[in-house]
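Entry 14. Structure prediction run on the chain below.
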Amino acid sequence: MATAVRWTVGICLPVALIFLAGGLYGDHRGWWNDQAFLTNLASSLTSLLFGLPFALLVFNSLGEAQAQRREERRVRALIRPEINELENLLLRRFRVSSLDELQHRCSGMRQGLAAASYQGRDTRQLTVMFENLYTPRDAADNPLTGEPGLRVHADWARSFRAQWEFLDNDLRPRALQAGIEWIPHSWSAHVRASVVTLESPGNSINVDAMCEALAQIAGIMTRLKQLHG
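Output returned:
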């Protein structure tokens, strides 16, 4: 509540109560029997002193609600393009058309790996499927293997991490302050852990761990888009 409104309410209500008590006492003593103008003036002033604070409270509440809605729209307008940029980074790197496709493909490969391991079957085909998804490509769509491929992936991982940190460290607090729902804080820790997994594939790619990380990131980003789409 604004300071001026607080002062007005704090002054008007006690004065109004004093006028009311005086009016009632005057009625009881018959002070106003031959004072029609003064009676009307006193009763009007008493009504004003009671009505003004409540009117100010109503208008102040409406103004605060409108300001809150404006701030929410402004913050959402900041958040949406940053989420879209994070999504584009992910989809361009892993050559899929949507977050749902990425999550579906990674979850399917994990299930296939688990089934093949349980049945003692060769998992090479699933590894090749993931390598086709994972391997960076140049402008002519040729695979980038070895050091060039690792360098492209490392650059992407740094960009993705920086974009996520901007969303989580800068925009999340502003969203919460504006009354905008955000993903649970624990999910942010999952994203960071998943990015660590993706950053350092090493000489031998752990397909199950990489697929788990990608599926988790895709699922969390899908939820973010639902909240801020």
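The chain is about 80% helix and 0% strand.
Filed with the rest of this week's runs.
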